[in-house]
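User: Let's play a game. I give you a shape written as tokens, and you guess the letters that built it. Ready? Here's round one.
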């Protein structure tokens, strides 16, 4: 009598929601990756070659929560004891699965024993916020076609860890053990028709209790099963399996290729503040050369990435390069105008030159620090970087004065040829004047000679 009541209740709920819930069984999925190649961030695609293993469990579960609990919970979804007699080979084909994100030119090859070899281009969502130090997640998404085409939800997918992993034959740039890792997720997705097609789930989790909706939820759906359909009110549910390959770019390679060239451009631009006031034309030439180098390098970086509104870490670094170059241009042009202006005194120009020699490096160093702490929440780092730049600039100027004084004492500079000529001419003039004062006149010599001849 009790079972009849439960069956009647299930029929009533299924009739109200448009989705039929019966006894559940599990289908295990194993993905063993043989090769990964052709990773293109600009197109968000990668070539993946893997072996797909499918097993079916004979045991049935009365409720969805029971089958999820047997798989280790919502987050885990693992098929345990896959070698036990309760698991058999999948009696279908690989064509029963929909490769959601695979290109239409993919290849399927049967290997018997419930295994298939799958090769093709798989699309993935690029993560560009932390580029080039990002972690890209390459996904292989599978769903059962019959679950998408009918309103009978009775199959739940889980992961077979014994048949999943990375092959040693993978030929991928970088160290395989440091760059590539695998993971998996299983979730329930809904398919049309939708009762609320314009409803949008504003959360990040697919579980209804953790996922607030932008529209009133559909209350007649089964809350324990219909997670993603709770907002849109989908009439079909399927279990979705995601095998994920996590690729992390090596930090040393990314730093040398992406961060080192802009860093040297910054250093060369900052060194222009050391040039004396008489070499402003040289400063203009150096600033123009560094600006051209920055633009060409930035364009080459953009060719590797897809068009996006997200600023990467490399973009923030290039913004720092442009800021440093802009202030170097501004200070140099202002000094040139003051130097060539007749109504501006040389003393004011010299004072302005000394002030920009301090302010320019301070702004450059502060801008470089803001590259890594560009969020407004890190305002304290901006203040610390500015104070640190002031202290560093002060001690650098003091050190420069001490070095200059030490060089003047121990290695006095040789006078210029023009100065030597002026000194020689001055000495000759002084000697000729002294000799004219000491030599007697010819009128005094004549009487002396006359008197001596008489004697």
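Assistant: Ready! My guess for every position:
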């Amino acid at each position: 009598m009790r079972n009849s009541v439960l069956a009647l209740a299930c029929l009533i709920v299924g009739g109200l929601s448009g989705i039929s819930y019966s006894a559940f069984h599990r289908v295990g999925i194993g993905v063993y990756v043989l090769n990964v190649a052709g990773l293109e961030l600009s197109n968000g695609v990668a070539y993946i070659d893997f072996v797909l293993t499918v097993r079916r469990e004979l045991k049935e579960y009365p409720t969805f929560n029971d089958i999820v609990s047997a798989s280790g919970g919502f987050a885990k979804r693992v098929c345990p004891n896959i070698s036990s007699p309760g698991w058999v080979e999948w009696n279908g084909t690989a064509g029963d699965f929909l490769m959601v994100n695979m290109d239409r030119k993919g290849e399927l090859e049967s290997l018997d024993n419930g295994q298939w070899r799958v090769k093709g281009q798989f699309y993935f969502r690029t993560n560009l916020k932390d580029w080039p130090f990002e972690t890209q997640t390459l996904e292989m998404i599978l769903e059962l076609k019959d679950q998408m085409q009918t309103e009978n939800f009775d199959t739940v997918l889980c992961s077979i860890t014994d048949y999943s992993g990375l092959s040693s034959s993978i030929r991928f740039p970088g160290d395989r053990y440091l760059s590539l890792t695998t993971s998996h997720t299983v979730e329930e997705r809904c398919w049309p028709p939708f009762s609320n097609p314009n409803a949008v789930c504003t959360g990040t989790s697919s579980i209804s209790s953790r996922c607030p909706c932008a529209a009133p939820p559909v209350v007649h759906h089964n809350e324990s099963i219909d997670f993603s359909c709770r907002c849109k009110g989908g009439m079909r549910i399927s279990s979705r399996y995601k095998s994920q390959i996590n690729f992390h770019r090596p930090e040393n390679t990314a730093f040398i290729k992406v961060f080192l060239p802009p860093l040297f451009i910054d250093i060369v631009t900052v060194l222009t503040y050391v040039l004396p006031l008489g070499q402003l034309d040289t400063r203009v030439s150096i600033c123009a050369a560094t600006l051209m180098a920055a633009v060409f390098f930035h364009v080459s970086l953009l060719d590797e990435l897809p068009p996006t509104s997200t600023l990467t870490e490399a973009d923030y670094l290039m913004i720092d390069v442009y800021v440093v170059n802009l202030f170097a241009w501004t200070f140099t042009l202002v000094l040139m105008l003051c130097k060539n202006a007749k109504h501006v005194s040389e003393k004011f120009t010299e004072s302005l030159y000394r002030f920009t020699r301090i302010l320019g490096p301070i702004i450059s160093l502060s801008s470089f620090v803001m590259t890594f702490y560009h969020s407004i929440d890190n305002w304290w780092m901006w203040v610390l970087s500015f104070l640190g730049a002031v202290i560093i600039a002060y001690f650098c100027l003091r050190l420069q004065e001490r070095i200059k004084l030490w060089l003047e004492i121990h290695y006095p500079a040789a006078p210029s040829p023009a100065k030597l000529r002026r000194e020689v001419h001055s000495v000759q003039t002084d000697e000729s004047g002294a000799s004219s004062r000491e030599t007697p006149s010819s009128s005094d010599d004549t009487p002396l000679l006359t008197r001596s001849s008489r004697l």
